[in-house]
Amino acid sequence: MKFQADKSDAQTITGYGQGWIAVDKQNHETSMLVGSRGMLQPWRPVRFEDLTAGDFEELAMLDVEVIIFGSGSKNRFPPPAWLKPLMEKRIGLEAMDTASACRTYNVLAGEGRNVIAALLQA
């Protein structure tokens, strides 16, 4: 029996490091929103301390089933009250450090899931 990797049309995070994220081999030096259905745009907050409830309200407006939140170099969780708009729309949010979020996004996107990675740089 021969096994072959499935070819996914989803954007792939091809690298990451301190201060940069590569999507389909293009380097970006800002916090990013990366979606399996084509979204690729800068995200306003740079550091965890820059986050506001409004950032999560904006995420709740997206047509997505799950959001992978990369909180920077350490795993940190946003205040639960900020997640209410996501819960009301039944959008899941998983918080982890940005490196883990990049890897998790790739797995879910490769499975064909409708996922967005919200990735902080610092």
TrEMBL record:
CDD domains: Xcc1710_like
Tree of life domain: Bacteria
UniProt-listed Gene3D superfamilies: MTH938-like (3.40.1230.10)
Cross-referenced InterPro entries: MTH938-like_sf, NDUFAF3/AAMDC
Coiled-coil intervals: none
Pfam families named among the record's database cross-references: DUF498
Stored PANTHER family: NADH DEHYDROGENASE [UBIQUINONE] 1 ALPHA SUBCOMPLEX ASSEMBLY FACTOR 3, NUCLEAR PROTEIN E3-3
Protein's UniProt name: Mth938-like domain-containing protein
Source organism of the structure: Comamonas resistens
